[in-house]
Write a structure and sequence with these properties.
Helices cover 65% and strands 6% of the residues. It has 98 residues and is mainly α. Strand 1 (27-29) and strand 2 form a beta hairpin.
């Protein structure tokens, strides 16, 4: 399932908001002589690495769209009722998250 541009914008806005609230948690580090923020937990770092790799492995959206258009034009795109229902459910869940 792909995430819409609108959903990405909302996540980025939330992250920006979270970062601005983290600035209150920043503290002066006497050794390096500057303000520093708390370091992420190791499991958080590993999760980011894992998700980054999964995103890198995903096919480009433009390629998917071009393939889908070609299949529709050739009359080879015939999704099953189950595939349509799954897509509707995923969309409903994504809409509730927003």
């Amino acid at each position: 399932m792909r995430i819409s541009d609108e959903q990405v914008k909302k996540v980025l806005a939330s992250a920006k908001e979270a970062r601005s609230s983290e600035s209150a948690e920043a503290y002066y580090h006497p050794v390096i002589g500057q303000i520093s923020k708390p370091v992420a937990k190791e499991e958080d770092v590993e999760l980011v690495r894992e998700l980054t790799e999964k995103v890198k492995q995903m096919p480009d959206r433009e390629d998917l769209i071009a393939d889908l258009r070609a299949r529709i034009a050739a009359g080879q795109y015939n999704p099953s009722g189950e595939e349509i229902a799954e897509a509707m459910i995923r969309r409903a869940i994504a809409d509730r998250i927003r």
